[in-house]
Each structure stands twice: as structure tokens, then as C-alpha cells.
């Protein structure tokens, strides 16, 4: 009987230790859910007062951008954004009309959905960007008359972006409304033009504390550029 009491006592102590460990587990960083929008329409993740301001110029049809988002961005967010040491601002660098379509969709649903939308579009990039051959002549012709909304809506349907956005809880009707958002369109084009004037020539490109960087490909290189 005494052996049984000792055994149960050990089990109880172990259970209490486990319970204490679970209760003491750190809560998710508030900075990973803090999103602000600049007066130019860029989305910023993290501490607005972070000592390091990192800006990424990004294209949604850029394979290197997708690689950075999937392989490097999570570690950067964990090490620097979550800890309040850096903020991450996304600015558009539109390379083509399909890229513009995706950039408009990334903004759909408000600022709280932006970074999730971005990750989803880049993680599925190979699926939808591989279908650009399906864009009809009628849809392409809309570019000749500068009917950009018409082109984007046609592209949305013809390369299968509808099901992809539905996975983010955004219906086709909601997505098409986003594609017709003139303010969003102007913000995206404005950021692209400003980036070109600044000297951005490829994507992804990074500004760290206001300085345009050369050849940033990973978290280690970003860390080296920060203070």
C-alpha cells in the first residue's frame, strides 16, 4: 500500500509539474498580430516604434519573393518582429498585370487579413501563375483600353484565383469588389512608381532603416544590415 501511495504521489507531482509548464508557456507576441497601414497604403507588421524598420518591395509573381516568404520570413518574424526589435513593411513593386491582380487581392478583407492573404497567394503561386496561358484574348484586350478592372476580373476567373481566395474566406463576389477598388489600385501603382524612383530594380528588395540594400536573400543578411 505504501508503494502505491508513493507511486500515486509521484504521478501527482509529475502532473502538477506538467500543468505548471503548460500555464507558464509564453503567449503569442502581440506584435505578430499588430498591423498598421501607412499613408501611402503599405502594410506594416509589428511594433510601430521598433528600432529597426525593414521594408520589403515585393511582387506576387516573383519566384524569389515566394521563396523568401516561405523559407525566410517566418524566422525573421519570430526573431525580430515578435520581439519588437523590427517591423516589416510590405510595399508593392508590380511587374505585370497578373501581379497587379494578386496585389489587389492581397488587400481584400482589410488589414487584419493582409499578411495571411499574402502568404497564401505566394504559397500557391505555382498553381495560379502557371495558368496565365488560360487568360483569353478578350481579357487581354481590356488592357489596350486601360480597362484594368475588367482585365483583373477576367484573369481572376480564368486562372483559378476564386477557389484560392475562398480558402481565405473571401467569396468571388467580395474578391471582385476588391479588384474594382480604385483607392487600392492607386496605392499599389503609387508604391511601384515610388520604388522605381528610389532605385528598386528587382524583387524582393529591402530597405533597412531607410537604406536600400543590395543582395539580401535571407534572415542572416537582413540581421547584418540592422542595428
Largest sheet: 6 strands, mixed
Task: Say how many strands there are.
Answer: 6
- With strands numbered from the N-terminus, the spatial order across the biggest sheet is 1-2-4-3-5-6
Q: Output the CATH homologous superfamily.
A: Glutaredoxin
CATH architecture: 3-Layer(aba) Sandwich
Question: What is the averaged pLDDT score?
Answer: 91
Sketch the topology as an H/E string, one letter per element. Answer: HEEEHEHHHHHHHHEEH
Global outline: globular
CATH top level label? Alpha Beta
Query: Uncertain runs with pLDDT below 50, 5 residues or more?
Result: 1-26
Beta fraction: 5-15%
* Radius of gyration over C-alpha positions, nearest whole angstrom: 22 Å
| CATH fold category name | Glutaredoxin
Query: What is the SS-derived class?
Result: alpha+beta
How many separate domains? 1
Q: Termini distance?
A: 64 Å
- What is the count of helical runs? 11
**Helicity, as a percent range:** 55-70%
Keywords:
globular; six-stranded mixed beta sheet; Glutaredoxin; 6 strands; disordered N terminus; alpha+beta; 11 helices; 227 residues
How would you summarize this macromolecular structure in one to three sentences?
With 227 residues, the chain is α+β, with helices and mostly antiparallel strands. It has helices at residues 2-24, 63-81, 97-106, 111-123, 125-129, 137-144, 148-158, 161-166, 172-179, 182-198, 219-225; strands at 35-37, 43-45, 52-58, 86-92, 205-208, 211-212.
Amino acid at each position: 500500500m505504501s508503494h502505491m501511495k508513493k507511486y500515486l504521489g509521484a504521478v501527482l507531482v509529475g502532473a502538477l509539474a506538467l500543468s505548471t509548464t503548460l500555464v507558464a508557456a509564453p503567449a503569442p507576441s502581440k506584435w505578430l498580430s499588430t498591423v498598421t497601414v501607412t499613408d501611402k497604403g503599405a502594410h506594416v507588421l509589428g511594433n510601430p516604434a521598433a528600432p529597426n524598420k525593414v521594408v520589403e518591395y515585393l511582387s506576387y509573381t516573383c519566384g524569389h519573393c515566394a521563396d523568401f516568404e516561405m523559407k525566410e520570413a517566418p524566422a525573421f518574424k519570430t526573431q525580430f518582429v515578435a520581439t519588437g526589435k523590427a517591423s516589416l513593411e510590405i510595399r508593392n513593386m508590380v511587374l505585370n498585370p497578373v501581379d497587379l491582380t494578386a496585389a489587389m487581392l492581397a488587400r481584400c478583407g482589410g488589414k487584419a487579413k493582409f499578411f495571411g492573404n499574402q502568404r497564401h497567394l505566394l504559397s500557391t503561386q505555382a498553381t495560379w501563375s502557371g495558368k496565365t496561358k488560360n487568360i483569353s484574348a478578350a481579357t487581354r484586350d481590356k488592357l489596350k483600353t486601360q480597362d484594368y478592372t475588367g482585365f483583373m476580373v477576367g484573369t481572376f476567373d480564368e486562372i483559378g484565383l476564386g477557389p484560392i481566395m475562398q480558402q481565405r474566406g473571401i467569396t468571388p463576389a467580395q474578391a471582385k469588389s476588391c479588384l474594382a477598388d480604385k483607392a487600392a489600385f492607386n496605392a499599389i501603382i503609387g508604391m511601384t512608381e515610388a520604388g522605381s524612383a528610389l532605385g528598386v530594380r528587382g524583387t524582393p528588395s529591402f530597405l533597412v532603416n531607410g537604406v536600400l540594400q543590395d543582395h539580401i536573400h535571407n534572415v542572416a543578411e537582413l540581421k547584418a544590415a540592422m542595428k
